[in-house]
Write a structure and sequence with these properties.
Helix content: 40-55%
Pfam families: Glyco_transf_29 (PF00777)
Structural class: alpha/beta
Protein name: CMP-N-acetylneuraminate-beta-galactosamide-alpha-2,3-sialyltransferase 4-like
Membrane topology: Single-pass type II membrane protein
Radius of gyration: 28 Å
Family: Belongs to the glycosyltransferase 29 family.
Strand content: 5-15%
Organism: Chelydra serpentina (Snapping turtle)
Distance between the termini: 97 Å
Order of helices and strands: HHHHHHHHHEHEHEEE
Oligomer: single chain
């Protein structure tokens, strides 16, 4: 092949140059869009305020299932442990792993020698496991509310109450603070020294129902008293 055959004409070179230039612009634009979407999704995952929930319908978008942290999620495990499941024997990998966690790991990841105490405590509850009204939903959401005063003046009450399960820690007041902390309570966990004799002191009459679990000092999970308050 002659050297002349390897050299394009002036018009051909100009066409090739223009084509490659336009192709690079398109590729650069697509790359910018992809990076922008990734950055936006990352920022939304990091945002702690309610603007995240307003912008993304978590259930509709199945956001939780796409979250990388769920690489450790075991779908065969139930959200709430029941007394029956404490001693249920099933020769499956998930069940063997759960038995290992419950029987041989100390708190906070297992019960170890406290399995019997956990069984006795669960027997006191009027209902164990997920309520049927919630269990039939394909998307279930829960929220854990503490008592550090950081919610004061934030107006998160409606957002907190929108969750299916609301778990509150310690006996932080709900009464007179509904706009910030909500009023729905599914489970409340607290130590004896932080418990009030009357749950209505910090809660309205209609919102004192649910499981109220008292944890003993030096606590291991499941030990203590549990009582239903349904005034």
């Amino acid at each position: 092949m002659s050297i002349e055959g390897l050299v394009c004409s002036k018009s051909q070179c100009r066409f090739t140059f223009v084509f490659l230039k336009k192709l690079w612009k398109v590729l650069r634009l697509l790359l910018s869009v992809v990076l922008s979407v990734q950055v936006l999704q990352y920022c939304r995952r990091m945002l702690p305020d309610d603007s995240f929930e307003k912008d993304i319908n978590i259930c509709r978008k199945r956001f939780a299932w796409r979250n990388p942290i769920l690489g450790r999620f075991e779908p065969d495990w139930k959200p709430f442990l029941t007394s029956r499941e404490l001693f249920w024997q099933d020769d499956t990998p998930a069940r063997r792993q759960l038995n290992d966690l419950l029987q041989f790991h100390i708190l906070p990841f297992g019960l170890n020698s406290s399995v019997l105490h956990a069984f006795q405590t669960l027997q006191l509850l009027p209902q164990q496991g997920m309520p049927k009204s919630i269990d039939r939903l394909w998307c279930r959401r829960c929220v854990v509310v503490g008592n550090s005063n950081s919610l004061r003046g934030r107006g998160f009450g409606a957002m907190i109450d929108s969750h299916n399960i609301v778990i509150r820690l310690n006996d932080a007041p709900v009464k007179e603070h509904k706009a910030d902390v909500g009023e729905k309570t599914s489970i409340r966990l607290f130590f004896p020294e932080s418990a009030l004799p009357n749950p209505l002191d910090n809660n309205d009459k209609g919102n004192a129902d649910g499981a109220h679990c008292i944890q003993e000092p030096g606590f291991y999970l499941g030990e203590g008293d549990a009582a239903e308050h349904n005034e």
